[in-house]
Amino acid sequence: MVSRVIPVDPFDLVIFGGTGDLARRKILPGLFRRFCAGQMPEGAQIIGAARTEMDDAGFRDMVAEAIREFGGGRSCEDGTLDEFLKLIGYQVVDAKGEDGWKELKARLNDGLIRAFYFSVGPSLFGDLAERLRHFGLADDDSRVVVEKPFGHDLKTARALNATLAQHFDETQIYRIDHYLGKETVQNLMAVRFGNVLFEPLWNAQYVDHIQITVAETVGVGGRGGYYDKSGAMRDMVQNHLMQLLCLIAMEPPARFEPDAVRDEKLKVIRALDPVLPHHIVRGQYDGHGVEPSYREDAGDPRSTTESFIALKCHVSNWRWAGTPFYLRTGKKLRARASEIAVVFKDAPHSIFGADAGRHRNILTIRLQPNEGMELGVTIKEPGPGGMRLVDVPLDMSFADALGPDSEEVPDAYERLIMDVIRGNQTLFMRGDEVEAAWAWTDPIIEGWQNRGEAPKPYDVGSSGPDDSLMLMHRDGRKWRDIRT
Ligand code: NAP
């Protein structure tokens, strides 16, 4: 099955921070892949903007190098890069000063969609928003895209929202959480709301519990200084894991429209109970001198920042009363694997007797690697010798299901940037959602700060601290293996 490319209208896209890491690794290669897929309209323009002195040609060289390093797609033929580079320009601009703004405005075309990607630190969001208005680059139809971290806590998130709101309406603000741009995550909604099979079972009566795991093998490496002020709770749970939880737990929205979906997600966050201190485990990786430990990577021998979190929480509403949600994320774990597992309850009565053992249906939604879904079903073990039961997966790997063109399924950034151009906010976080998420995580973080709790050490390459295994064992459950 070939993925269908839906054209977008011509646009001017300005990437503030165009020389930075995110632009080079994700945004520019992603735009190139959309170009190769034929989705870049005639008349589209992409302008990098930052303080570094450079001309258009210099920036095009940088973009070409980034694309060579971080990848085009299979459909990007020789010569396509040169064509793509013709859309690219560069403007020296200081977000905090007056330089470059008039020149940047002169480069923009009248009558086209204008999108401004803030691929810079959040401390510059206010400066950029103010100058975009002051110098007349942005109007009421323009869009701004902002990156995580969206605040450090509720107070700073509120301040950021208020700053942006001084210059832009909520309908113009696109807060990126790239997890929402993943194919599987959107498929989760398609599976839930496009089939009659799952939704009747999607509740506390039939679901025993839900596990969400985002496991990484990398450490904090080069960004230890930033990460040490953040930790796994702020860096991963408050945004990515909570967004996944929302999509799993939300009620069916009336329509697949931005505010209908985001209203339902917000209700989930607001229904989350506070987390009890003994329902949360923090960890920090330890390389025992063979590999760097977290504290070495962070450059602070006494750091108490967590590189791992496991927690149990409850969504207090009729649908989920009594069904625990277990969330887990960490760095330097045994494998890079992200998945959501919906573990259904046992059949109410086994006609096969105790010897048949315990069998459960599990719906697994794999985010990485190999995006796909798997439904574990129980069948008879083939052959003679009575009724022996075995669990087998009904597997749907997107790569297989979509055929040879599936590599061309856009990655999260590509899809989300095209949604910005289309003006579709469904997969972007609304300001009140972000604030509600901080309102839930802030007391958890304050709690362990007040108690002076240190994270538990765990071995590099393991599944996290033993206490996180106990979090499940105490409930008679167990985490799924972290494996690729
Ligand atoms: P980075 O590599 O440090 O790049 C920052 C960019 O901002 C550079 O292009 C820099 O260029 C520009 N800049 C800094 N001060 C400026 C000013 N006063 N005026 C104009 N431009 C200025 O950072 P990054 O990793 O790309 O991250 C950008 C944002 O995305 C951050 O908010 C980060 O948290 C977020 N993010 C990054 C990643 C990632 O994988 N890198 C992932 C998720 C979120 P000049 O020095 O030339 O001005």
UniProtKB/TrEMBL annotation:
Positions annotated to bind NADP(+): 17-24, 51, 148
Catalytic-site annotation from UniProt = 240
Q: What is its EC number?
A: 1.1.1.49
The reactions it catalyses are:
D-glucose 6-phosphate + NADP(+) = 6-phospho-D-glucono-1,5-lactone + NADPH + H(+)
> What does the UniProt keyword field contain?
Carbohydrate metabolism, Glucose metabolism, NADP, Oxidoreductase
Look up keyword NADP and say if it applies. Answer: yes
Q: In which pathway does it act?
A: Carbohydrate degradation; pentose phosphate pathway; D-ribulose 5-phosphate from D-glucose 6-phosphate (oxidative stage): step 1/3
Question: Which InterPro entries does UniProt cross-reference here?
Answer: G6P_DH, G6P_DH_AS, G6P_DH_C, G6P_DH_NAD-bd, NAD(P)-bd_dom_sf
Q: Where does the chain bind substrate?
A: 178, 182, 216, 235, 331
Q: Where is the Glucose-6-phosphate dehydrogenase NAD-binding domain?
A: 14-187
Query: Segment Disordered: which positions?
Result: 451-471
> Glucose-6-phosphate dehydrogenase C-terminal domain location, by residue?
189-480
Q: Which PANTHER family match?
A: GLUCOSE-6-PHOSPHATE 1-DEHYDROGENASE, GLUCOSE-6-PHOSPHATE 1-DEHYDROGENASE G6PD
Belongs to which family?
Belongs to the glucose-6-phosphate dehydrogenase family.
Which HAMAP family does the entry mention? G6PD (MF_00966)
Q: What does this protein do?
A: Catalyzes the oxidation of glucose 6-phosphate to 6-phosphogluconolactone.
Protein name, UniProt field? Glucose-6-phosphate 1-dehydrogenase
Taxonomically, what lineage is the organism?
Bacteria, Pseudomonadati, Pseudomonadota, Alphaproteobacteria, Rhodobacterales
